[in-house]
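HUMAN: Mind making up another protein with tokenized structure?

ASSISTANT:
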Amino acid sequence: MDIVKLSFGQILACCIFFSGTVAALEDKGAVRSGGDNEQLRYDPEKCKEDAEGMVYFSVRDAVFKVSYKDLVSIRGMSAESRSNLPKRRDQAEQEGCPGNPLWGKGFLILYRYQDTREDKAVEAKNVVSLHIIASSREGFGLQRVNESGFERIRKSYGDCDRSIVGLISCRKPTTEKSLAGDMEISGYQTSLKHYGTPLGEKLTVLCTGPSVSPSRGRACRVDYKLEENINVSYEFYRQDVPMSSFLEFDRALRGYIEAARVKNYIWAK
């Protein structure tokens, strides 16, 4: 199995929140970013317990399992942080097996979703790069940055409406066709009576780039706390996920994460 590293451009495009070198889990090999970019190999068929084609990974003490083909990259962590992790049941087994989940500060997963668009004239990619990140109680990732960006658009331009159920939509007015539609600079925020983050805050979507696809428009970013010590982050394009379908999309994504979580995982005593 070859170890394949992401190019610098790929890192900027899909792994921008990761610092250092990140590499892809392609086929059954990966490199975990960190001081010496540790090489990893994983074959679910070699696990002592039946992994069912899944790779197991831990975000702090929460364990998840996804298809090993969908785990793209791993961000390492310091030795000090590792010393606080729960003890694995079988540290001699290959990492990624049920008895020895992969460790890391963050994991990039390919979330494959069902296309719910009414207008399917443009083919949707149907894949979102989903980041699941270990955090602290005070660490909100880019959630507060998104909230500030939404407030800047709202206060600077005042062009807001509630045309989408459950969302306040604000945008930068423009007369240039090249900056309209899916290229529009805009922000969205949920009404709490309709939807919010798992911790009861408004969920903010910021569509300001800098990732821009000529065929799909400007990228939209979402970041929030899934729970006290776990953050989620992802990007999407409005041609793939229209804002009229966004609440349904995010709800399904949370369902996917919940289904991937290994309930009552048993650590070593």
Observations:
- The chain has two domains: 4-112, 127-260.
- DSSP finds four helices and 17 strands in the chain.
- The two ends are 34 Å apart (CA to CA).
- The first helix runs from residue 8 to 14.
